[in-house]
C-alpha cells in the first residue's frame, strides 16, 4: 500500500487542501499571538458536532456555526475588558467539555468520537474533498482580498486607523476564516490538533522567510509536506494518522529552528 492507493490519494488531497488554507491563516495567528484563540475555536467544534447530530444537520454547518459563535464570544468579552488568556482558557475548556457531555446524551446515534478529536483522514470521501477544497479556496480568496488590510491591522492598529481601516473588522475577517478552517480540518486532524496545524507550520516558516508573503508560502509547503509525510509514516509504523502528521510538522519545526541557529552562528 502506498500513497497511490485510492483512499490514500483522497487523504493526501485532503491534507494538502487543509494545509493550504491553514498556512496563511496560521501566519496571522502567530503574528497576533492568537494560538489560544485558535485552540478555543477548534474545541468548540465538538459542540458543533453534537448539535449537528442532534438536529440531523451537516457536520460542516454545525462546526462552522459553533466556531463562529466562539469567535464572536471572544471578541465581545475581550472588548469588555476581560483578561484574554483567562477568558480563552475558560471558553476553550468549557466548549470541549460541554461538547463531550452533549455527545453522551445523543441516543440512537453512533459516533466515533476519537475521529472528531484526533481526525480520520483515511476515511475522507469525495464529498469531504469537495467541502475541504471549497473551504480552502474560500479562505484563500478571503485572505487574498483582505491581505494588505489584515497585515496593516496586525502590524500597527494605529496605522490601520490612519489608513481608514477598522482593526475590529479585520479581526472579524480572521475569525470567519478561522471558523471555516476549523470546519474543514476536523475530518483531517480533529478538534484537538487543529491548533497545531495552524501554528506549527507558520512557526517553522518564520525563521526561513524575509517577507510576510514568503512566510505564508513556506508555511503552506511545510504544512503540505507534514500531511504527506505524516500519511506515509503512519502507514509504515502503524500509528494514528492525525497525530503523526502533527509530529512530522513538529520535526520540521525543529529542523527549521536548527537551521536558523546555525545560520546565526555562522554570521557571528
Give an account of the 3D structure.
It is a single chain. The chain has 268 residues and is mainly alpha-helical. It has a domain at 6-192: ABC transporter involved in vitamin B12 uptake, BtuC (Orthogonal Bundle), CATH 1.10.3470. The protein contains 11 helices and no strands. It has helices at 6-31, 35-54, 59-79, 84-104, 113-118, 126-155, 157-162, 167-185, 194-205, 212-237, 241-267. Helix 10 (212-237) crosses helix 11 (241-267). It is globular.
Percent in helix: over 70%
Principal-axes geometry comes out as globular
Beta strands, count = 0
Distance between the termini: 48 Å
At the fourth level of CATH, the homologous superfamily of the domain at 6-192 is ABC transporter involved in vitamin B12 uptake, BtuC
Strand share of the residues? under 5%
User: Helix and strand string, N-terminal first?
Assistant: HHHHHHHHHHH
CATH T-level topology of the domain at 6-192: ABC transporter involved in vitamin B12 uptake, BtuC
**Gyration radius, rounded:** 18 Å
Q: Ranges with pLDDT <50 over ≥5 residues?
A: none
Name of the CATH first level of the domain at 6-192: Mainly Alpha
- Main β-sheet description: none
Counting helices, strands and paired strands, the structural category is mainly alpha
Question: With helices defined by DSSP (H or I, 4 residues minimum), what is the helix count?
Answer: 11
What does the average pLDDT come to? 85
CATH architecture of the domain at 6-192: Orthogonal Bundle
Amino acid at each position: 500500500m502506498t500513497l497511490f492507493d485510492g483512499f490514500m490519494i483522497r487523504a493526501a488531497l485532503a491534507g494538502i487542501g487543509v494545509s493550504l488554507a491553514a498556512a496563511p491563516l496560521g501566519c496571522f495567528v502567530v503574528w497576533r499571538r492568537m494560538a489560544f484563540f485558535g485552540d478555543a475555536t477548534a474545541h468548540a467544534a465538538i459542540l458543533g458536532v453534537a448539535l449537528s447530530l442532534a438536529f440531523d444537520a451537516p457536520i460542516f454547518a454545525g462546526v462552522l456555526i459553533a466556531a463562529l459563535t466562539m469567535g464572536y464570544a471572544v471578541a465581545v468579552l475581550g472588548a469588555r475588558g476581560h483578561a484574554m488568556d483567562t477568558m480563552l482558557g475558560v471558553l476553550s475548556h468549557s466548549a470541549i467539555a460541554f461538547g463531550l457531555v452533549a455527545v453522551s446524551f445523543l441516543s440512537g446515534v453512533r459516533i466515533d468520537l476519537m475521529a472528531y478529536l484526533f481526525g480520520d483522514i483515511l476515511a475522507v470521501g469525495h464529498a469531504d474533498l469537495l467541502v475541504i477544497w471549497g473551504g480552502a479556496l474560500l479562505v484563500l480568496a478571503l485572505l487574498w482580498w483582505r491581505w494588505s488590510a489584515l497585515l496593516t491591522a496586525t502590524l500597527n492598529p494605529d496605522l490601520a486607523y490612519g489608513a481608514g481601516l477598522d482593526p475590529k473588522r479585520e479581526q472579524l475577517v480572521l475569525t470567519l476564516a478561522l471558523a471555516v478552517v476549523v470546519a474543514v480540518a476536523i475530518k483531517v486532524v480533529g478538534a484537538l490538533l487543529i491548533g497545531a496545524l495552524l501554528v506549527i507550520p507558520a512557526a517553522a516558516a518564520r525563521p526561513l522567510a524575509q517577507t510576510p508573503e514568503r512566510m505564508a508560502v513556506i508555511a503552506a509547503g511545510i504544512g503540505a509536506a507534514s500531511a504527506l509525510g505524516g500519511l506515509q509514516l503512519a502507514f509504515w509504523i502503524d500509528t494514528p494518522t492525525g497525530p503523526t502528521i502533527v509530529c512530522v510538522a513538529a520535526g520540521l519545526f525543529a529542523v527549521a529552528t536548527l537551521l536558523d541557529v546555525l545560520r546565526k552562528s555562522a554570521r557571528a
